[in-house]
Amino acid sequence: MKSICAVEGVEAAGIKEGKYGLALIRAAGSAAGVFTSNRVRAPCIELMERKILSGRLEAVIANSGCANAYTGSRGYADAEQMCIIAGEALGIDPASVGIASTGVIGRYLNLDLIGRQCRELVPLLAKSEEGEEQAAHAIMTTDLAPKHALIDGKKFLVAGICKGSGMIAPNMGTMLAFLYTDAAVETGALRDILRRVSRRTFNRVVVDGDMSTNDIALCTATQEAGSVSERQLETALESCCRSLATQIAADGEGATKLIEVTVRGAMNEEDAAAIARTVVGSPLVKTAVYGEDPNWGRVVAAAGRAGVAFDPSRISLWAGEGQDRHALVNCGSIVVDLSQAKKTMKGKKVVFELILEEGEGEATAWGCDLTEEYVRINGRYTT
Fold this sequence. Notes:
By secondary structure, this protein is of the alpha+beta class. The chain has 2 domains: 4-248, 4-Layer Sandwich (L-amino peptidase D-ALA esterase/amidase), CATH 3.60.70.12; 258-379, Ubiquitin-like (UB roll) (Roll). It is 34% helix and 30% strand. The chain contains 11 helices and 15 strands. Strands 1, 2, 3, 4, 5, 6, 7 and 9 form an 8-stranded mixed β-sheet that branches. Helix 1 (43-51) packs across helix 2. The two termini are 38 Å apart.
């Protein structure tokens, strides 16, 4: 199995018809969610924030092609109806159905289409790689590839699928993530773990700096594998979400390179994360990476505007990794060898490490380069 259907108690199916897709996942257990912090939030987010308080889900229905965002009272009623459609088709209480939407903002759902697709999917639900692959494709919009992750915790599994490519900013991006584990965990603990993990993974991805109205990550624990320690579960879930987060960054709209920025020696983790996110979100850093230009000054300048106090005369900056890791700045002194630095910009992944000498705080963020293709994709998105 590729990921979620390897988890005991999870079945999936999906359908894609042009721009409009529908994914259906059946799995019962304790559940938690994290959501966009955008003030303009889709009705499905408003609805799910209320539903998730019950701490339990039995299924998730997710559509692509229409975000059902900024659609007012009709949009909220449509989101409720979408849950009713899934509940009736599955023979379960609609209150236990999770919902997510992605696509164009300011458009209403086609409930007739969603109803037909849902009824077609129910008989196809299966604990199979094919069913999961169909579900992962169904939620894609501008994504070039589906995204899966599976972590073996030895006595339990954690897995997930997600979509995300553009409109990606810290505090989640245009992403839908559906996470599953067979570990037995109480809702309160699962909620706390998911929040901490999301801060260190999904909240550290920057493609273009825009924040979506529909971001959501739902995690369901089927309890099939029995009890595990919370620390073990958190470690595995963080590994799963980090894999999905980096897949989102690498698949950024128009991207040709994944950017990874690690900040060490900050006063605390929050400071390190703020700097790392600022660097990966910098348009000047992104375009330099695209052009394979080792313009390290842009990295330092971006770090300086992150709103974090540090002494510029003490920082060190490295580019590359492993044997191809080269110093650009050492304790405030320029030591860059441009020919060696140029080599670190080649390939599909560009890595920067910034050391501040201010404390023990450390964090990593991920992003991608900025290309002409990003403008082409988004210049005529609705037409």
